[in-house]
Amino acid sequence: MGDDKYVFLNRDLSWLSFNYRVLMEAADKTVPLYSRISFLSIFSSNLDEFFRVRMPAIFAFTSISARKTTLREEYPKELTHQVQATVFQHQEEFGRILTRQILPELKQNHIHLYYGDLVKDEHKETIREYFLSKVLSFLQPLILLKDNQANVFLENNSLYFIADIESATQPGKHQYALLNVPSAQLPRFMELPAVNGDDHIIFLDDVIKENLQEVFPGYIIHGAYSVKLTRDAEMDLQDEFAGDIAEKIEKQLLKRELGHSTRFLYDHAMPAGIKEFLRDYLELREEEMVDGGRYHNLKDLGSLPNPQRGKLTYGSWPSVPHPGFTTDRSVFSSITEKEKLLHLPYHSYNYILRFFNEAAIDPAVKEIYVTLYRVAANSHIVNALISAARNGKKVTVFVELKARFDEANNLQWSKKMKAAGIKIINSIPGLKVHAKVALVKRWENKQWQNYSFMATGNFNEATGRFYTDHVFFTSNPEFSLELEWLFGYLQSRKQPADYNKIPFQHLLVSQFNLIKRFNKLIDREIENAKKGLPAEIIIKLNNLQEKDMIARLYDASRAGVKVKLIVRSICCLAAGVEKQSENITVHRIVDRYLEHARVFVFHNNGRPEYYMGSADWMNRNLHSRIEVVFPVHDEQLSAEINKILQLQLSDNCKAVFFKDNLENQRIAAAGQPLLAAQQAIYDYVKGL
């Protein structure tokens, strides 16, 4: 069967299926109440990003006449309708979960969130005082007139009311006014005094609604309806041309918030006449008009006050100390003794901070090299690099300025590091550097001893608390030599003349040998299966979309190779299809932590090979990024990776099978004990 006859799932519909899996956690009554509210917040935030990042492409590619059949296959004419229908169904389910489950359960726990119901008399004075003293100064009402139409601009994903007002002196003359909800300047929720033992919380939106007469004196107010506009976030950087990319990105960041609209969300109670007026006034397309609820930006539910503080949420899992690192010896001494592997966030993130902190002050450390894709807003790692430079060390940092939604933060840190004397390398034209690697060069006993850091996740201590990743430390000179070559390439920013002469023998690096090596590993499993030998592939990814690699997995399945996949989000592989993927299963895990690691295991007739790294199997990762995947040879560390994967494949609580019809099918326990992988992994790591 040729690749062109294989069945592939649509990437956007598969992503929406993942977001529905998030919504399933919000409806799961075994999840603590405030943790379920957090899943509602994540669902809403994800959907906002989808409309910013994916809907522009969907609108564009479904509306043009496609000359290439591959384009029409990925963006069929009906895709816009399919996406909008799916989103509508999910939002309806979101509303049912919130109003029929979450709000009643909050009340059962003596927490009352005002959600369109009448405000109690006991709270009106408190609300009015807060409005007059704190809220009113941020309000900017604007009557929508033809004369000011050109100057009316709705900021991306900001909250507004459209007020239907009538002049008291000119009865019958209705006008519409735009009124901002200043949720960027003030908390979205206000805690109110308890009444009869029940705590009360109110939306900022309703604080304003309760006092609209103060905003429009001399008018009769007939209604106020929530709206928000989502704008295209694609930066469309043409960074191949000469010039300072940092300056170009600064300009593009300003343009991003001025992007074309992709969704206009309005209160479902809004009268048809007002909707028609707004569509014409704001020059919106019909397909951009989306019926919503009374409240928008419900990603803010993540900040809903919890009057019971530590209750009604997941209990904390204290991070586990790694037995191979102690405070009475340096991290470099520990790494020299034996390679180390961290399993985040189960292990403490402090060892990563120590790696950079100790490098910054160690007199024997002479050079530090690191790639940065996303870093924390107040990054300990970047501050350590700045300290190292000020301590006279040679520090070289590649900063990826094109990391979506982190461009401004990365640009700010880039300027600070450069001012401290760090050599900054900024974005390579046409490529993003997504690799998670660092190299420390230490002068020991009159020779260089190098320490390599390679990981599946970001140098970001904030996300390190809830992203599951693996971090590998080694003093293996073969790895460090190849990392040196990689950093040399990043600094030269020149493609090698002959890819066949590249020195990577151990590391798998996209743009160089990564695809070729993965194909060889798959080929070996296929050959073993044809010989009647055991053959198995286990792969864990965030996203699986690149068709050539999916086709290779289909090839493996047809040859009899057992393929077990754990894919968190986008998955274009259709599992269980006759004569294509009968031997493939796709697991999807959603739990308290975000599954983020990329792991690859090839059975090799009983001598399995283990790889980990930064690369998902998407077009962008394999063809337009620098990614690093590294082997793990140590038997003990390989056994740890295998144990974690087996626990994830055995999960029958938080894992589902992702089916070829895009459904998330619960895994039946079938008489087996219940097993939630993240809890089991935490217990396993504690016992190491």
Could you characterize the architecture of this molecule?
This protein is an alpha/beta fold and 688 residues long. The chain has 20 helices and 28 strands. The chain is globular, with a radius of gyration of 27 Å. Mean pLDDT is 91; it is low at 235-243.
Strand % is: 15-25%
The CATH class name of the largest domain reads Alpha Beta
* Largest sheet, strands/sense/barrel: 9 strands, mixed
Q: State the CATH architecture of the largest domain.
A: 2-Layer Sandwich
Read across the widest sheet, the strand sequence of neighbours is 18-26-24-23-19-20-21-27-28
Features:
about 700 residues; alpha/beta; polyphosphate kinase like; Endonuclease, Chain A; 28 strands; about 25% strand
Can you give me a brief rundown of this structure?
With 688 residues, the chain is an alpha/beta fold. The protein is built from 20 helices and 28 strands. It folds into three domains: 120-305, polyphosphate kinase like, CATH 3.30.1840.10; 331-494, Endonuclease, Chain A; 508-686, Endonuclease, Chain A.
Helix/strand layout:
Blueprint: H1 11-26, H2 33-53, H3 55-63, H4 69-74, H5 79-108, E1 111-113, H6 121-135, E2 142-143, E3 159-167, E4 174-181, E5 189-195, E6 198-203, H7 204-209, H8 212-215, E7 219-231, H9 245-256, E8 261-267, H10 272-281, E9 289-292, H11 331-337, E10 340-344, H12 350-361, E11 365-372, H13 380-390, E12 394-399, H14 407-419, E13 423-426, E14 432-433, E15 437-444, E16 447-455, E17 467-474, H15 477-492, E18 508-509, H16 514-530, E19 536-541, H17 547-559, E20 562-567, E21 584-589, E22 594-595, E23 598-602, E24 609-613, H18 619-623, E25 625-626, E26 628-632, H19 635-649, E27 655-658, E28 664-666, H20 677-686
Parallel strand pairs: 1-6, 8-9, 11-12, 12-13, 14-25, 17-22, 19-20, 20-21
Antiparallel strand pairs: 2-4, 3-4, 3-7, 5-6, 7-8, 10-17, 11-15, 15-16, 16-17, 18-26, 19-23, 21-27, 23-24, 24-26, 27-28
Helix pairs in contact: 1-2, 1-5, 2-5, 12-13, 16-17, 19-20
